[in-house]
Amino acid sequence: ASRTADHLRSPVICILGHVDTGKTKILDRIRRTNVQDGEAGGITQQIGATYFPIDAVKKEATKLAEGRQLDYNVPSLLIIDTPGHESFTNLRSRGSSLCDIAILVVDILHGLEPQTKESIGLLKARKTPFIVALNKIDRIYDWDAQPHNCPTRDSIAKQPRHAREEFMRRVRDAQLEFAEIGFNTELYWENEDPRKTVSLVPTSAISGEGIPDLLMLLLALPQKLLTDRLMFNPLLEATVLEVKVIEGLGTTIDVILTGGTIREGDTIMVVGLDGPIVSTIRALLTPHPMKEMRVKGQYLHHKEIKAAQGIKISAEGMEKAVAGTQLMVVQDPTSEVEMEYCRDEVMKDFQTILTDVDKSGKGVYVQASTLGSLEALLEFLRSSKIPVSGINIGPVHKRDVTKASTMLERGKEYATILAFDVGVEKEARELAEDAGVRIFTADIIYHLFDQFTAYMEQIKK
Ligand code: GDP
Ligand code: MG
Q1: Separation of alpha carbons 447 and 295, rounded Å
Q2: ipTM score of complex
Q3: Which strands, in side-by-side order, build the sheet including 364-368?
Q4: Model pTM?
Q5: Whose CA is nearest to atom 20 of ligand 1?
Q6: Which of 39, 106, 186, 430 has a CA positioned 20 to 30 A from the CA of residue 217?
Q7: What is the dihedral of CA 337, 338, 344, 348, to 10 degrees?
Q8: pLDDT below 70 — which residues of the chain?
């Protein structure tokens, strides 16, 4: 496999934005639109992602191309859709971001909401190109929804005058808000330079308007912006999305492979809470394609898998693997030099996090679902000058409560667990109640922060 422009891997696409803007619904719509058009076109559910072969996407998009030649080199689109990973902060891989392109969903009636801005900040920091879906246009007063394959531009032209005027006013409002945070935006058909200007795509996940437009832009973007990044990279690049117990398989890890090839029997190294974990791939799994649903067994086994794909890996000792971190393959496990190198590499992200823990030993206890979300939360707490005494990844257990309870003597207000996007075990909750440890849970960072600051105020009084 050589690195050339006609040998590109699939771009990995993330959907992000404020809660309730319609991220899930848009993805459902993309899936269904294609499926409804006859055969499924090879669209397959992957682990943590949906795989759209280029022909299926093209079929939708060419309706809009108006005779223009659509000439794409990418083999498919891989759209990340694990519900637990809606927050982009959960996804990171070695320094860069796992995601090549993002769809930022904005509710056209609400404009840029806090989580949207949070997402933009991350996209900016990682220089990830994105397009904006200005969603829920059907909710504009008196909107006259057009068939889904009508280009949005024409759909807008067909609206009653006041609906069109309201639409234009809301687009301008959104453009102003984007300008305030440093982004030039244009409706996509007026955007002459996607390198400098972000495209706005009016959509409705309910009527389906704008969804083919979105697909067409997703296809066009990689060519323009990402060719270098998407050239097939023989080096392995893989991110652990989730750690899950599956009946019959034990603890497995869900991984998005964005570079290289991974094989059954490979020696892998992943980040563990207590240090690097080394193991051997017992099975490389993907779900069955739709038409093979009746085949016995839940998963399809593979000898090897090439990027980009979503995979489930079954391997010994994954219980303490940390989601949101990179996975490495050790070429020669007998080489102590390589093992050492991998250990350092794989734990890099984790080490930087530990420096956030307050040395004085006074502070709140912080728990999150993935390394990425923990990082984002710690960043937030640092900027809010809230000290942190301990961290953990995964659900809140009794031992976490015990650790947090040591603060009862040192600073009562810090005998608190801030739990982001994780569950709290029943026994842990009981112990916390008995001991007087407060547990705050939320799946939006600033909600946690609000709860905690309100609690601090209350204590001061
Ligand atoms: P998410 O939190 O961003 O994933 O948002 P969802 O996809 O769960 O959508 C939130 C709510 O908005 C649901 O009740 C959807 O049915 C609704 N919704 C999503 N997209 C649209 C849209 O384009 N038009 C209208 N009218 N409702 C929408
Ligand atoms: Mg959702």
Answers
A1: 44
A2: 0.99
A3: 388-393, 364-368, 416-420, 438-442
A4: 0.78
A5: 22
A6: 39
A7: 160
A8: 1-6, 32-45, 47, 60-72, 81-97, 223-224, 232, 289-297, 352, 354-356, 358-359
- Whole-number Å distance, alpha carbon 71 to ligand 2 midpoint, is 32
CA nearest neighbour of 84 among 120, 121, 47: 47
User: Does residue 113 line the site of ligand 1, with CB under 6 A?
Assistant: no
Tokens found for residue 201: 């795509």
Radius of gyration of the chain (CA): 23
Residue of 15, 19, 25 to test ligand 1 pocket, by largest number of atoms within 8 Å of CB:
25
Distance CA 130, CA 13 (A): 9
Å from CA of 24 to ligand 1 middle: 7
Distance from the CA of 22 to the center of ligand 1, in angstroms?
4
**b/e per residue 367-400 (b: at least 16 CB within 10 A):** bbbbbbbbbbbbebbeeeebbbbbbbbbebbeeb
**pLDDT tens, position by position, 385-423:** 888 998 888 889 999 999 999 999 888 889 999 998 889
110 lines ligand 1 (CB under 6 A): no
For residue 173, the SS3 value is helix
